[in-house]
Amino acid sequence: MTPSALLADFYQLTMLDAYLREGMHGPAVFELFVRRLPPQRNFLVAAGLEQALDFLEQLSFGDAEIGWLERQGGFSQQLLDYLRHWRFKGEVHAMPEGTLFFADEPVLRITAPLPQAQFVESRLLNIVHFQTLIASKAARAVLAAPGRLLVDFGMRRAHGAEAALFAARASYLAGFAGTATAQAAMHFGLPVFGTMAHSFVQAHASESAAFEAFARSRPKRPVLLVDTYDTEAAVAALPALAGRLAADGICLGGVRLDSGDLAAHARAVRRLLDDAGLRQLTVFASGNLDEYRIAQLLADAAPIDGFGVGTALDTSADVPALDAVFKLQSYAGQARRKRSEGKATWPGAKQVARRLGGDGCLMHDSVQLEDEALPPGSAPLLQAVMRGGRRLAPSPALDAVRAHHAAQMGTLPRRLRGLAPAEQPFTAEISARLQALARELDAAPH
């Protein structure tokens, strides 16, 4: 089902109607940020900007949506006419996709007439939060498995079709080699990977017959799933098969392990392959893997060349949600500050300034008002990407985003590269002017 303009919280519409009735069309600034990092995350990866800009450019209300709203009753004709002629006319500043960020740092800033800026909240969070969640999880797997092939295997347990597609994109952005999801490969231009299922082996009269049939149908370095029955026995039979296939110019690519003690099986399989002169065959592992299990396997010196990561990745199982929010920071030229207990915001339109150390690693981030001078040696992270509701330039190719992210990971200090919570977390400094503005607003009557 293609999302419509009504993929939004209902209160966005009720607030929009009220704004219109009151004539509140002034410019508003909303910012999307994460209040705090989960204990299991030392950093986050900004992702989803391309789809967010697509949403803003393409958002419109058709007859079906307008008709549904009319049938709900209570909405003004002014609102229905406003939506019928909707076109987003705002500005967007955002961190480039793939950028590392931390708590309280705006990832995306919308400046638009208040009704428009308010309405787009729900879907923008829906898009940016999810891809950021998955890219951040995937980046940890990449850190855990340096130099290894990593493939997204998570479609069948993703929470819906769009989630499966976005997870494939976000994980590739963060350094995965590709995906097993065919539509994601087609839509985003990702490398696609696939082996075989246990059912393919079971459907044949014998395991060897299944292997040979598969290899002849997929002759470009096929990877065989060897643990349907007896893993080591299956691998022991491969030299004879490899010889028959080689006579016809077919070379096996590798074997896949999907169950049991993966480290023990990998050692036994590697030894059998090497002893048979099949050193070129790779060992690929899957089966309930995440960055923790991968790190443990490699710490145990398991001879595994690549990993398929599924459920834990596409659901971000250890951190299924981030405390991501989209909050009003300014209206009609006046800074606004939410003061709710535990949910207070830093007011005003802001910029994030980043300084790297002499070693090229992250040294200092400052969250400051947009018009403040940048600290010496710092660079602004939020960049203008949309004006008047239209992109300022085409979105970068996904491979360019991937390269930017790889460069970003090169700036990550050693203390933040582990899977455990860092003893010294990286936190952004809140500028003195921004703190003073917050105090001023707190002292004002409400």
Features:
446 residues; alpha/beta; seven-stranded antiparallel beta sheet; single chain; elongated; TIM Barrel; nicotinate phosphoribosyltransferase
At the first level of CATH, the class of the largest domain is Alpha Beta
Largest sheet: 7 strands, antiparallel
Q: Shape, please?
A: elongated
- How are strands sequenced across the largest beta sheet? 13-12-1-5-3-17-18
Spatial gap, N to C terminus? 44 Å
Q: Strand tally, please? A: 19
Helical residues, percent: 25-40%
Estimate what percentage of residues fall within beta strands: 15-25%
The chain-level structural class is: alpha/beta
Number of domains: 2
Detailed description of the structure:
The chain has two domains: 10-134 and 319-443, nicotinate phosphoribosyltransferase (Alpha-Beta Barrel), CATH 3.20.140; 147-314, TIM Barrel (Alpha-Beta Barrel). The chain is 39% helix and 18% strand. It has 446 residues and is of the alpha/beta class.
Short note summarizing the structure:
This protein has helices at residues 10-22, 49-58, 63-72, 77-84, 114-119, 121-144, 161-173, 182-188, 198-203, 207-217, 231-236, 238-246, 262-275, 291-299, 311-314, 398-409, 432-443; strands at 27-34, 44-45, 91-94, 100-101, 108-113, 149-152, 178-179, 223-225, 254-257, 282-285, 306-309, 324-331, 334-335, 350-356, 362-369, 379-380, 383-387, 390-391, 429-430. The protein has 446 residues and is of the alpha/beta class.
